[in-house]
Structures are given as C-alpha cells and as structure tokens.
Amino acid sequence: MIAVLKNGVSDVQKSSLINWLRAQGVEVHICEGKFQTIFGLIGETSQIDIDLLNGLEIIDHVTRISEPFKCANRRFHPNDTIVEIGSGKNMVKIGGGNFAIIAGPCSVESEEQIIGIAEDVKRSGATLLRGGAFKPRTSPYDFQGLRGEGLELLRKARKATGLPIVTEIMSASHLDLFEDVDLIQVGARNMQNFELLKELGKLNKPILLKRGLSSTLKEWLMSAEYIMSEGNENIILCERGIRSYDPYTRNVLDLAAIPMVKELSHLPIIVDPSHATGKRSLVESMSMAATAAGADGLIIEVHNDPEHALCDGAQSLTPEQFTKVAGKVSEIRKLF
Ligand code: PEP
Ligand code: MN
Which domains does the chain have, with CATH numbers? Predict the structure, then answer.
C-alpha cells in the first residue's frame, strides 16, 4: 500500500503518522521526492483502515499495490534511482540519465593482464573495471578463478587506473574479502541465493544483480526486494540473456526487459551483451541495440588475448574492438 502525502506537510505531522502506522504493525518506507512524499507501507496492511487513512487531512491519496515487490516498485519511488559507485573524482553514477560502461576480462588472470586491460578500456571510455576472481563455472574441473589473489590484483588495477572495480561474490562467507570492492556482482546462478541476498542487504554498498538463467522479471525484482528489504537500496539490475532452445547464441538477450523493468521499477538496468550472446561478433550490434532500448549502461568482456583467455574467450572483445563499440554506443547516447 502507498500513501501519498499532500504538499507542505510538516515533519512533525509526518512523524506522528509514521508512529501511528508502526503501531498498527506495518513498516514504513519513506520516499522524499522533490514535489511529493510517499509512504510505502509494508507488512500486514490488511489491518489498516484504508478509509480512515484516506480521510486524514495530510493524505492526498492511498493505493494498494498488487505487485509483490514493494521497495523496488516504481509506484513507491516514481523517480529513477541513481546509484553511485566508488568515491572522489572517479565516482561513477548509473541511472536517471547517467550511462556507464563496465569493461574487463571474464576472469582476472595475472597482474599484467588486468592492469593492461584496465588501461586499455579506460582509454576507450569505460569508467568501471570488471574481472572475476571467484568464478561460477559449470564444471568443477575448469579454472575457478584466482580468488583472494584475484581481488588483490583488481585492487592494484584500481590503484593504477582509478577505475572502480566490479567483481562477483558467490558466498556470504567471503563478505570480508569484498569489503573494499566498489560494486559487488551477484551472478545469474546466485540470483535466488536468498541468504546471500539478505546479507548483501545489510551492506551500504552498490550491488549489481544479474538476471537468473531462466528467471521471470517478477522473480528478478523479488530478488532485488530481498536486498532492499534489509535496507540496501543501491541496486543495479543486469539483463544478461535467458535460456532458450537455440544453440547458436549462448542465451537470448531480452531487450524488451529494459523498458518493461523501467515501467515496473525505479532501479537502473544495464545489459551484458557478452554473456547474452556468447559470440564476439554479436557484441557490437547488441550493445547498440541495448543502448537504443534505454539501458543505463553496459558490461562488456574485453581480453588482450581472447584466443588464450582462461574463460569466455569466444565472447571477449579485443581492446581495439571495444574501442569501436564504445564509440558507436556514445553516438547512440547522443539521442537521449
Ligand atoms: C560474469 O559476469 O562473469 C558471469 C559469470 O555472468 P553471469 O552470472 O551472467 O553468467
Ligand atoms: Mn564470462
């Protein structure tokens, strides 16, 4: 349920309404907009007398929200959320008209590799560096990532270039290691690891939440809700393709998810054309399409030697190819 307040309601009136609502057993999330204050009521709202609430002097109107996601719902928070990543002069904003490209290798492999790629992608316009340290591989016999050492190399690359770092967490037991990671990624395979999501909800740090391998938009937004309901509202969604039956592409990139999610939610949404297609030759066209569809950013795999990459070489761009894609994407952004 949402209660939209009239303009000019004083802080004292607001807090007495909040106290009254809490006494009825509901949690109140406050969204202070420029022109409007909205109270999102979560929990046993059936206890609330909607006519009584509607009749209060300070209330403009009250509406029940049928969707199960509340904090992530655009009706709770009409303005786009802007997520800030990193700090100081290298701080990057995503959402609400702010577009950013995250680029880097699938996996961190060595110091020279990650620093070299970081320098290359920065020169071409990427403002965040990706690199997997803990890798969720289908086979336990495949390269599992450099783990803690990989995180250390990412820190070195951040120091060398200033780019904030983005890397995937697979277990809440690794949280200590991720303390200074700028944007923590939850991969497709962990989108419904609810215990992990709850722990991430207790942090004051941005989370990149990838869509599950075959998740509906509602399931995806409910996963965001798990994080938000614990208090962390700094979430960026990432469409990375969903499972289908056609083996030519690794996944099917759901472009319609971009405007659909924007109707349903205020959270920013970026696109991963690399995992969505699995093919280097398709990354440029899908990057442009996603940008044209209104994505708030892209996450693209780039490798200095894709033929010998330890993971996902077939979908990784060379730095030169990335430069071309970033240039075309920035032309499309001029339309916005
Ligand atoms: C990744 O970004 O490295 C990754 C494993 O992606 P996804 O979780 O989308 O498969
Ligand atoms: Mn990958």
Answer: 2-63 (3.30.70.1140), 83-333 (3.20.20.70)
